[in-house]
Protein 1
Amino acid sequence: MRESDPRIVLGLHRSRYERRILTSALELGIDTIDTSFNYRGFSAHAALADVGSDLLPRFTLSTKVGFFPAAGRAEHSLDPGRLREAMEQTNRDLGRAPDLVFLHNPERSLTGSPDAAQDALGAACAALEAAAAEGLCGAWGISSWDPRPLPELADDTMPRPDVLMVRGGLLTGIDVLEASEALAARWDLGTAQLWGMSPFAGKATDPLWDKLDPQVFIQNPDDSLSALQAAFRTAYWLPRVGKIAVGTDNPSHLRELVDALRYEANTKSIHTYRQLLRERAGHQPL
């Protein structure tokens, strides 16, 4: 059993919800898991409680609300009443209050005028803030796949989230990276309050990772460092985050990611890479 390390969150997006990945995570020192109300066809919470109810007290558990079942499909909504109902059902299905609930991809429903979008976002944030105050969750945050619309909408009248989770890694565009950083700055969130997700752009088995050489972004790489490990470690700096949620059902893959944490990033190379991304996007260098 390894000592607990807070830098990795076991993501359960495409998980089969098998007990062995939960026990393996604990053995490797990973004691935070992330799921969502809509994962596994809206059955993720019940499945998690079914296979690991005795293990859940040992985990810090985060989940998300924002997608809802509708005629055989999922629809997105920021309606405060629906968010509240989803959080109440989450508590029932898990058999406990989650430690953290994210507002899931709010940009999906921010339509209409800027004022209307700002009002909708503010009302949704207020609903999660109230739920946390009432004990339906320990804290609340925002999880955004595309945060580009959000920095212009966030202001001092809006409740401030405890955590922000955003897409990251080498394949994330500069506009998304900079929007994530701008949103974090707007809410005065430090590195410890920022989580990354999808460090391999959704597919760690993509042949692309055999063709790239991310080791250039690592200080003092050695022969035991794989390209996948180097890409994962680099993702903590694109953007700068304290945790990364990463999904796998393979304990060996999870162990490989844990082992990658012993390496440090080459921040000079990462800065150069970001400048190249800006130039490629037609932006002025910083």
Protein 2
Amino acid sequence: MIYLKLLRPKDWAKNLFLYIPLFFAGEIFNWLKVLQVFEGFIAFCCIASSIYIINDYADKEDDKKHPEKRNRPIASGAVSTGTALTIFTILTIAGFFLAYFISTKFFSLLGIYFFLNIGYSFGLKNIPILDIFIIAIGFPLRIRSGGSIANVDVTVWLNIMIFLLALFMAAGKRRDDVLLKITSGDDMRKAVKGYTLDFLNALLALISSVMIVSYFMYTVSQNVIERHGTSRLYLTSLFVMAGIMRYLQIIYVNADSGSPTKILYKDRFIQISLVLWMVSFYVILYIK
């Protein structure tokens, strides 16, 4: 069980972003492509888990100061560094081996994700602003990967929206780190020195505003209307706005801006907003 915890399987939900191009292209029921993307999902999970391990290895001393992260397998001493690095090596080889047989482009995109995050783990995460940009870039790489596997075009608007969403959540996470610094007096991350609550509050307001406008522009763009044969996708914006507003409420009112994945798993309002968005998109896109 402790080794499974080391792999952070709950965070594999992030890799479902590989399926977003299929959903937006109206091909989510093309089972051949769904299975092809699933192979990429497995490869991405292997590489993502290897990154989690190497990041925990690099962060083990800082994690010991964190109220939650100190329970991670490496920081707590439940898994030795030697064992962790062995599992890291196995997962890395397995992930790239599978990716190589899926497609050359996917292999390259996965390689970019891997080396970018290795750089993040060993120093880049200590540079304010750059740290959240690197986290955010991982999500457009996921949708580009899914699009390349399924041979589906990924629009510029989709890239922009996914990047902004990831940047928004990363900024929320950093705000949580700043709050922990204020309450505990310890720097949980070196990059926290480059952030303040006021700065992050302004950043979250800026990104959320641009993200909502970008989604509206995506739904009413001529290219999207012509591709999907409908001009009613703007109606789905209601649920996008509700989800963003709820996340802001969690951050500002509930003061709980920790892991976005954890929030997704436990918050019913966001879950319902997400389901209603998917249902509304499905009805407009697939049922005509």
Protein 3
Amino acid sequence: MTCHILVGGFFGDEGKGKIVSYLAIKDKPSVCARAGVGTNAGHTVVYKGKTYKLRQISSGFIQENANILIGPGVLVNPEILKKEAEETGVGERLKIDGQCAIIEEKHIEEDRSSSFLKERIGSTGSGCGPCNVERVMRKVKLAKDIPDLRQYITDVPLEINNAIDRGKYVLVEGTQGTFLSLYHGTYPFVTSKDTTASQACADLGIGPTKVDEVIIVFKSYTTRVGAGHLPGEISEEEAKRRGWFETATVTGRKRRSAPFNFELAKRAVMINGATQAAITKLDVVYPECSGIRSIEKLSEEGRIFIKKIEEAIKIPVSLIGTGPGALDIIDLREEL
């Protein structure tokens, strides 16, 4: 039985897409499943010279033998789903659960016209919040109600549990970050549901006893998009000087920056029950680490930083990202 859940440890934008794509290539999962809210989260995959920005499909699609599933707890925008299916060429490997709620144009319009959501909270405008509201009210359309989606419909919980019971490797990709959780985040500046490992299980219909690893992803510095407190925030000018300035995958908005936050990292490990951590963009903070794929070749400053993180969060750092490519990784899992 092998089921791993991957979640974000800060405010999203931690590099989950990169880590999932690496694991998909390296470990060859039979199933790559996307949990999370829906199209308000974008994951970036850089592979074989091509960049993919994905809002629906798992970043593990690059493993050509893996089934690509979307669980019933995830919101689906049919247009975005079909667009990504075409761009990635996943074909019949892509399946969604019939219980997925459907984001309609009215949800997007409501999201973008709401002064509270748009101006105060900093919503992505993707329609996820209003769609989740309608789901709670038991009025939302489900994927099984949409004729155009019939080719994609399957029983996702059944497929995933059957795979786990047969000893297949299932890789679950969460979205957003721990502190954007509706329950555990910086309320009200959060997303419209929980974003932790427990929620990823619920999104896909996986019981917690069937999960044997929770991998939490932290970027080597902290960023967040939209409103809400960001401890230790630096100015845009300072972020640019350090090379930390970024824009969001979904909206293109500027990301605010701060140094790595050890206290938040410790809390995120606790809430998610994380068993190992992945650190991304070490090369941005320590440029001399760019492209390194061996721990022996890592600079002393880079090693000290990783050790400091491990001492703080009390779990091992098993994966270290040293560049944008899917294979720019130091893999330490054999040492655990």
